[in-house]
Design goal:
By secondary structure, the chain is of the alpha+beta class. It is about 15% helix and about 30% strand. The chain has one domain.
Protein backbone atom coordinates (compact mmCIF):
# COMPACT_ATOMS: atom_id res chain seq x y z
CA UNK A 1 0.00 0.00 0.00
CA UNK A 2 1.05 3.57 -0.54
CA UNK A 3 2.13 5.90 2.22
CA UNK A 4 -0.07 8.60 3.69
CA UNK A 5 1.80 11.61 2.29
CA UNK A 6 -0.84 14.05 1.09
CA UNK A 7 -3.57 12.61 3.30
CA UNK A 8 -6.33 15.03 4.26
CA UNK A 9 -7.53 14.01 7.71
CA UNK A 10 -11.01 14.60 9.10
CA UNK A 11 -12.40 13.76 12.49
CA UNK A 12 -15.01 11.05 12.65
CA UNK A 13 -18.55 12.37 12.96
CA UNK A 14 -18.99 9.86 15.80
CA UNK A 15 -16.19 11.44 17.86
CA UNK A 16 -17.26 13.60 20.75
CA UNK A 17 -16.48 17.31 20.97
CA UNK A 18 -14.67 17.00 24.29
CA UNK A 19 -11.31 16.05 22.78
CA UNK A 20 -11.45 12.55 24.21
CA UNK A 21 -11.41 9.35 22.18
CA UNK A 22 -11.28 10.59 18.60
CA UNK A 23 -10.52 8.91 15.32
CA UNK A 24 -9.44 10.70 12.15
CA UNK A 25 -9.94 9.27 8.68
CA UNK A 26 -8.22 10.16 5.41
CA UNK A 27 -10.16 9.01 2.37
CA UNK A 28 -8.70 11.27 -0.31
CA UNK A 29 -5.91 8.93 -1.47
CA UNK A 30 -6.55 6.50 -4.34
CA UNK A 31 -6.87 2.90 -3.18
CA UNK A 32 -6.19 3.69 0.47
CA UNK A 33 -8.06 4.72 3.62
CA UNK A 34 -5.99 5.98 6.56
CA UNK A 35 -7.16 5.88 10.17
CA UNK A 36 -5.33 7.44 13.13
CA UNK A 37 -5.77 8.55 16.73
CA UNK A 38 -6.35 12.31 16.79
CA UNK A 39 -4.52 12.58 20.13
CA UNK A 40 -1.34 11.13 18.55
CA UNK A 41 -1.23 12.58 15.04
CA UNK A 42 2.45 11.80 14.58
CA UNK A 43 1.95 8.23 15.80
CA UNK A 44 1.09 5.17 13.73
CA UNK A 45 -1.83 5.09 11.34
CA UNK A 46 -3.75 2.12 10.06
CA UNK A 47 -4.14 1.63 6.32
CA UNK A 48 -7.12 -0.10 4.75
CA UNK A 49 -8.18 -1.00 1.25
CA UNK A 50 -11.40 0.94 0.52
CA UNK A 51 -13.44 -2.27 0.23
CA UNK A 52 -12.23 -3.50 3.63
CA UNK A 53 -12.97 -0.10 5.18
CA UNK A 54 -16.48 -0.03 3.72
CA UNK A 55 -17.14 -3.54 5.02
CA UNK A 56 -15.98 -2.50 8.50
CA UNK A 57 -18.01 0.73 8.57
CA UNK A 58 -21.18 -1.06 7.50
CA UNK A 59 -20.66 -3.80 10.09
CA UNK A 60 -20.41 -1.36 13.01
CA UNK A 61 -23.76 -0.79 14.70
CA UNK A 62 -25.30 2.62 14.08
CA UNK A 63 -25.65 3.85 17.67
CA UNK A 64 -26.71 2.30 20.96
CA UNK A 65 -28.81 -0.82 20.94
Amino acid sequence: MTDLAGAVWRKSTRSGGSGGDCVEVADNLPGLIGVRDSKDRSGPALRFHPTAWSTFVHAVPRGPR
